[in-house]
Amino acid sequence: DARVTQTPRHKVTEMGQEVTMRCQPILGHNTVFWYRQTMMQGLELLAYFRNRAPLDDSGMPKDRFSAEMPDATLATLKIQPSEPRDSAVYFCASGHTRDRGAEQYFGPGTRLTVT
Amino acid sequence: GENVEQHPSTLSVQEGDSAVIKCTYSDSASNYFPWYKQELGKGPQLIIDIRSNVGEKKDQRIAVTLNKTAKHFSLHITETQPEDSAVYFCAASLLARFAGGTSYGKLTFGQGTILTVHP
């Protein structure tokens, strides 16, 4: 049963600390997306990778957020330093450009609380 | 950029009734419209999608209609069941073809509809 996995599932940290979220896309998928979900803003795209290259990170605050794909099986989203307004659920999704349907498969999310 | 409006924000129906959720989009170039279902504590799950060259698509109890002229699309769920209770999101995107496949456009999501199906 192929699925996107994310770690950790929950993270509580203090303001100013570094936070790293990890995502393992479905094996063989070549696109990875990072989304943030809050009650106020809904689902927002933060970054999009294709074949491990960042294609769009316009939704990401550049001064504190960074996203990378060290290899095809791992995507990371880092916040440094974290702030209370970063509290949200962060989702990773993956897909493949060969799929005509362009489906994005979401992971279970990382719930981040910054105090 | 694209803007997607979704209505209603909450919807309560009796089991067996139909439910309809509507979305409007602003960018006439958008050509891909997926619907996602999100259950508590889980990530969104794609339930159905439609492309701009099709006016309607059905999958068992779920159907989606698209009116390109009016720039709106709707999700229809018939014979609702308690397990249909969840948050539903519409989205719009521009997909482009390239030699190696399909290029994902940015998905712009609606604000979501909380559907409650009462037994």
Describe the structure.
The complex is a heterodimer of chains A (115) and B (119). With 115 residues, chain A is mostly beta strands. In chain A, 0% of the residues lie in helices and 54% in strands. In chain A, strands 2, 4, 5, 6, 9, 10 and 11 form a seven-stranded mixed β-sheet that branches. In chain A, strand 5 and strand 6 (53-56) form a beta hairpin. Chain A is globular and about 40 Å long. Chain B has 119 residues and is an all-beta fold. Chain B is built from no helices and 13 strands. Classes of the chains: A mainly beta (115), B mainly beta (119). The A-B interface holds A 4, 31, 33, 42-45, 48, 50, 56, 91, 93, 95-109 and B 32, 34, 36, 41-46, 49, 89, 93, 95, 98, 100-104, 106-107, 109-112.
Q: What can be said about this structure in brief?
A:
The complex is a heterodimer of chains A (115) and B (119). By secondary structure, chain A is mainly β. Helix content of chain A is 0%, strand content 54%.
Give the arrangement of secondary structure elements:
The complex is a heterodimer of chains A (115) and B (119).
Chain A: E1 5-7, E2 10-13, E3 19-24, E4 31-38, E5 42-50, E6 53-56, E7 65-71, E8 74-79, E9 88-95, E10 105-106, E11 110-114
Parallel strand pairs in A: 2-11
Antiparallel strand pairs in A: 1-3, 3-8, 4-5, 4-9, 5-6, 7-8, 9-10, 9-11
Chain B: E1 4-7, E2 10-14, E3 19-25, E4 32-38, E5 45-51, E6 56-59, E7 62-67, E8 72-77, E9 86-92, E10 96-98, E11 101-103, E12 108-109, E13 113-118
Parallel strand pairs in B: 2-13
Antiparallel strand pairs in B: 1-3, 3-8, 4-5, 4-9, 6-7, 7-8, 9-12, 9-13, 10-11
